[in-house]
Amino acid sequence: GAYVLQVKATDADDPTYGNSARVVYSILQGQPYFSIDPKTGIIRTALPNMDREVKEQYQVLIQAKDMGGQLGGLAGTTTVNITLTDVNDNPPRFPKSIFHLKVPESSHVGSAIGRIRAVDPDFGKNAEIDYNIVPGDGGNLFDITTDEYTQEGVIKLKKPLDFETKKAYTFKVEASNLHLDHRFHSVGPFKDTATVKINVLDMEEPPVFSKTMYTMEVYEDTPVGTIIGAVTAQDLDAGSSSVRYFIDWKNDVDSYFTIDAAEGTIATNELLDRESTAQYNFSIIASKVSNPLLTSKVNVIINVLDVNEFPPEISVPYETSVCENAKPGQVIQTITAADKDLSPAGQRFSFKLSSEASNKPNFTVHDYRNNTAGIETRRNGYSRRQQELYFLPIVIEDSSYPVQSSTNTLTIRVCRCDSDGTIQSCNVEAIFLPVGLSTGALIAILLCIVILLVIVVLYVALRRQKKKDTLMTSKEDIRDNVIHYDDEGGGEEDTQAFDIGALRNPKVIEDNKIRRDIKPDTLRFPRHRPPAEDNRDIRDFINQRLQENDIDPSAPPYDSLATYAYEGNGSVAESLSSIDSLTTETDQDYDYLSDWGPRFKILADMFGEEESYNPDKVT
């Protein structure tokens, strides 16, 4: 009687004329599953609890027929396809009550070790199943999840298995619908239960160490070969095999220790130094003799214990100072000590003066008994003039066995302080300065001295430069007279053109050896020669100058006073003076000038035959 749908047929006849337009509905095909109301055309279910899992689709043939007319009733038909929709009305069911699984003991944690399946005849989400392990024997070692594609229960391993410990596990698994329909709660529980039995298969396994990690201790400087500990591994398989041990060599640190292959005892192989390395960390590998490929590894940590071998020392270098106006009993420095050894808990250091310093009335050491000490004054004032530095020997001892001690020298500098004890100066130079002269005033005085020295140096440099420029531009210079002399002289008797005394005084030439009528390519240093005596003939001096200029390759062949100012006796060119010249130039024969070399070429061209001389070619 459940409503399915309503069909409706129309008749084109006049509804007011008899029963020609009155329609009656009936089912020609589809019974006994459905029924139809002949007047309204409402289709309803005819059987209770129609099961979609038995038949999902139905085809119903409906007839609509009018009630009368001369033709005796006309009918029309239509087909209705009805599909049953699924509801969650069936619980899941296991096909069998017990599932047997065999699992190797070497299976990894988290791996799937088996599958079971419950069947639900529903479809879609109504067939989704949720699996759970019922708490009980062995359930804590396993877990189960649902494969969303196959709706199978996947059993996974939560903890490792060990055949030697337990060979079988039994637990129950419950399968239930994930989506329940409250309309069918009265049908019964929508879940099912099955038993799972797991048998653990024995596998050959590597040796097992008795501990997950080994920690050992050894004193530094322990003799080589001393046994410091041992590791133990066993083969737990049936018919156990012997075990061999060896160190997993990874670096040079592992060479400090050795291990007995059969016993697993670890011994020192070298002398250990805690100050160099305080801890060693390496691995030991155990393998089965029957199957060396089956190995296991364990970590070993060896702590090196300290031996009191270093004496304590002052922890940092102190810069200690004392005021000249210090009072007795004043603490001028607090010192601490440090030890290169690994100091144990409660390590104490004691401080005292050395025996030779305890008799001096300058300073003393006050041990505070908390690993610190104070340096106290014993005098009423100190004088830098008498002694600037004091060297205080302090003996420091530790409390370990054997007792180690050292003598440390503390340097104390005497400084000038104000009345409040603030240090003003500790420099040695400050001792000899006037009492009223401050550091700022001293700096100002030094700065003024530097400025005065700079001014003096600049003044001297300017005077030298001015003097040099004056000498270069002097009109009394001999070569300047020759260069600027552009008027024909009156002969040898004309003594007004230039100072002939310069030729008679060789010292004037010696003072100025650099040629001023040309610009030299490179600076040539003056030639040093002994000065000519006043009573020597001037011709020797001129010849000497002429020879110097002839052999100098850097000097051009300029006509200069040094070269042609004097001709001596026996000259090849004879006299060039106008006094001894012939009356006319035509009487002279200048052909010999061509034999004098390239320096007289221009002169030979000028005084040679007139037809061969071209003034335009003269440069």
Automatic annotation (TrEMBL):
Species of origin: Climacteris rufus
A Gene Ontology BP annotation from the UniProt entry: cell-cell junction assembly
GO molecular function list: beta-catenin binding; cadherin binding; calcium ion binding
Keyword Ribosomal protein attached: no
Membrane topology: Single-pass type I membrane protein
Gene: Cdh12
Keyword Zinc (UniProt): no
Residue ranges occupied by any Cadherin domain in the UniProt entry: 1-94, 95-209, 210-314, 314-432
Annotated compartments: Cell membrane
Record field: transmembrane: 431-462
Record protein name field: CAD12 protein
Role of this protein: Cadherins are calcium-dependent cell adhesion proteins. They preferentially interact with themselves in a homophilic manner in connecting cells; cadherins may thus contribute to the sorting of heterogeneous cell types.
Pfam families found in the cross-reference section: CADH_Y-type_LIR (PF01049), Cadherin (PF00028)
Keywords: Calcium, Cell adhesion, Cell membrane, Cleavage on pair of basic residues, Glycoprotein, Membrane, Metal-binding, Repeat, Signal, Transmembrane, Transmembrane helix
SUPFAM superfamilies hit by this protein: Cadherin-like (SSF49313)
UniProt-listed InterPro entries: Cadherin (IPR039808), Cadherin-like_dom (IPR002126), Cadherin-like_sf (IPR015919), Cadherin_CS (IPR020894), Cadherin_Y-type_LIR (IPR000233), Catenin-bd_sf (IPR027397)
Record's GO cellular component terms: adherens junction; catenin complex
Main location: membrane
